[in-house]
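Title: Comparing notes on inverse folding

I've been comparing how different people in this forum approach sequence design from structure. To keep things fair, I'm posting one structure and asking everyone to reply with a full sequence. Here's the target:
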């Protein structure tokens, strides 16, 4: 989950002030790994257009959605009749 969060936080240089230095190595790894990825580049361009509070809000929403998704997936595996 932290890697997903760092993926979105690291997609724009303006957001670097939002993260702690302990995550900078992970951010650099992701930047280098996905630098030629079209989706990554589109996300970076979109992030540049957003204000920092909008990006932070979006990151929180994505994080919450991932958490709910995986929680529901586990519940589904345990008891599919609930869904």
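Reply #1:
Here's my take.
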């Amino acid at each position: 989950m932290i890697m997903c969060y760092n993926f979105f936080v690291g997609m724009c240089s303006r957001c670097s002030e939002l993260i702690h230095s302990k995550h900078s190595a992970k951010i650099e790894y992701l930047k280098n790994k996905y630098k030629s990825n079209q989706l990554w580049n589109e996300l970076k361009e979109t992030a540049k257009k957003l204000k920092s509070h909008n990006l932070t809000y979006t990151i929180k929403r994505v994080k919450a959605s991932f958490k709910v998704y995986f929680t529901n997936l586990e519940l589904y595996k345990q008891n599919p009749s609930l869904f």
